[in-house]
Amino acid sequence: MNKAVEYIFLFLVFPGFIFSSSMGLFIGWIDRKVTARLQWRKGPPWYQNFIDVAKLLFYKETLIPEGVSRVFFLGMPVIAAAGAALVSTIVLVINANPARGFIGDLVVIVYLLMIPSISLMLGGFTSENSLASLGASREMKLMLSYELPFILALIVPIMKSGYAIRIGDIITSQNNGLVIGSFSGVLSFLVMVFCIQAKLGFVPFDMAEAETEIISGPYIEYSGKALAIFKLGKAMMLFIIPVFLITLYFGGIKFNAEGFIKNIFQYLAILFLMIVIKNTNPRVRIDHAMKFFWGIVTITAVISVVLAYMGY
Fold first, then answer.
1. Quick one: pLDDT at residue 294?
2. How far apart (Å, rounded) are the C-alpha atoms in residues 261 and 46?
3. Where are the domains of the chain?
4. CB neighbours of 267 closer than 8 A, spacing ≥ 6?
5. Which helix (H) or strand (E) holds 51?
6. pLDDT band of 255, cuts 50, 70, 90
7. Distance CA 124, CA 26 (A)
């Protein structure tokens, strides 16, 4: 019984849903604030994202399109948020204690990271709106594009850690040298950055939502609590994915003063890189994104794997 209570607490409170979504909303404010400064604007206050989600949760009506499956339509945001919360819980718990990992936990994380995108895609198709279906179709094509180089890039930390597929083993193996400290690690990291840019739906890979073209795509029929839960899932992904990269390439989160300060700078550097890419590139067409990921990004990922195998 105590174990069950502990697991529920980890998933729902800390480091799961409540903690990760709160951090994600705050990180989202940093994104909006830096973006505003780059555009010579003031930007919103730090609590703006919290207010926006609270309005959706408590004041806005949840409208359901006529003729759609109510359970399926409302279930997709919940599944997306649950997947993101599970990723956050597993990654942070293992960072706190690498021994708490389980065999193949890295493979599980890869699958869980796909759930928010799949849920968004299915939610768009379920809503039976032509623009939502178009956005969901773009999301599906984009996902098929970036998943291959994402998995190839992931092979480099696995090889560098002695072919470990446990996150804890990858963390402890970097006591002898960080993955990012090798040439193959740098190439793999750069591939990952582009892939997570697409996974998060950031510019230039936001064609699935494309507010100015298809009015938010898969989100168009979502409102109220359902839209708020989708936004919380996306906020959790924004928070945990840089932590996941720190885990794979920088030796994980260190729970001492010096190491934690380094982690904060590493996190901010990754976040700033994502924001710069977001604000210095226009939205690309879906066919251009597919060519980009299946072309130069996949080739770079393959090169990084070959170099890792050669010991570089």
1. 94
2. 22
3. 2-309
4. 242, 243, 246
5. helix 48-58
6. confident
7. 27
**Distances in Å between the alpha carbon of 5 and those of 11, 99, 104, 295?**
10, 20, 24, 47
Q: Locate tokens 């003063």: which residue?
A: 257
pLDDT of amino acid 32: 93
* Structure tokens, 61: 């009506």
Q: How confident is residue 39, by pLDDT bands cut at 50, 70 and 90?
A: confident
CB atoms within 10 A of CB 116: 26
The pair of structure tokens assigned to 265 is 């700078």
* pLDDT bracket for residue 40 (50, 70, 90): confident
Containing 190, the helix (H) or strand (E) segment is helix 183-199
Both structure tokens of 310: 């050669």
pLDDT, mean over the chain: 93
Longest dimension (CA), the chain: 59
